[in-house]
Please model this.
Amino acid sequence: MGDGFEDFLKSELAPPDRTPDRQFAMRVRAAIALEERLAAHRSSLVRGLVKQLVALGAIAAGLWWVGKAAPVASWFAGSPAVGLGVLLAAFGLLLALVGRPEGRAVGGSLSKLNGS
Amino acid sequence: MPHGNDEDHALSQRAARGDSAAFAMLVEKHERPLRGFLARTFGREVADDIAQDAFLKAWRAAGQYDGRARYSTWLTRIAWRCRVDALRRHRAPVETDAPAVGSPALSAEVDDMLGRLSERERASLVLCEGHGWTHGEAAELLGLPLGTLKSTVARAKAKCREMWEGAEHG
Model:
């Protein structure tokens, strides 16, 4: 039996009768765009980190291999403190080169191009 | 698969391939009932945030919508989980008042009624009486046995009727 209460309840609880809210749709779109930018940034950070770790590993392996060569090894045996110092300095230099963020050089170049 | 599901399924598959225009069509089609339900059940002040969160998750999981259930059912399920997760994160009180959406005069009355129900009663009532969900769909969403859901709706309706009749309508 349909009565006043049933009609009242159904009409009041039904979804609001209006046109789609484009402003809300834009808000969702903006949130999605932001999330995608953040995800892209995160994955580029992870890629960069992996590249740097691989590069550091390669440098360390290279230095170890150079240190094992006969002339270097004998020099090391003669003056181990100096040899270690040279190796550490070389490693530090390469670390600074590899660890430099990619964007900095580009940003610097752009700043120069813009004259700022 | 019902015709409406076909269309939504196709749009969702396009969204899964990164087509944001297709997803915008889904948002425009489904935001009205979803936000209506959330506003009636949880309150307008949190409804839009939950809805936005739900759409964001629906975008991420677009490929998982298989078109078997209605898109609105799938989306509401996501929104419900968003609400549960938000409550867990913020440890907010589970029960909230149900404030307004829609026309002020009548809405104030129905909001007052809904505010006296539990959140589960409100959700059951809004979905089954207002949004045309089947009892089975609502039971699945709320994680209730079918019989419990039916009695929850009946109880909520009886409480509302009592309040309505008490307010000089009867």
